[in-house]
Design brief:
Helix content is 43%, strand content 10%. By secondary structure, it is mostly helical.
Length: 97
């Protein structure tokens, strides 16, 4: 998503660099969602998001991530497509009210 930008804004680049991580991934779901929202806010074209293994998150993290993704998909900013995989049925977490 950010690869198509000529320049990533300094504030976003700094936030990405300073985000808490374990060497491979961000450790805070809410921080990852914030960075994702900020990145999508810079896009001028529809966005597709693919997340594999959402069932590997804790139940609380699943709720945080799914609620945040639901808000992204329902926002008026850009058309956003979402593809999630997991071993469990995630429909109740993603239910659109």
């Amino acid at each position: 998503m950010l690869e198509k930008l000529e320049c990533i804004p300094e504030a976003l680049a700094t936030a990405i660099e300073n985000a808490a991580h374990d060497g491979d991934r961000l450790t805070e779901s809410s921080c990852a969602l914030d960075l994702l929202r900020r990145g999508i806010g810079l896009c001028k074209h529809p966005v597709s998001i693919a997340i594999d293994g959402i069932d590997e998150l804790t139940e609380q993290s699943q709720k945080v991530v799914c609620n945040g993704l639901r808000e992204l998909v329902q926002s008026d900013h850009l058309p956003t497509k979402l593809f999630l995989t997991g071993r469990e049925d995630l429909s109740s977490l993603l239910a659109v009210s």
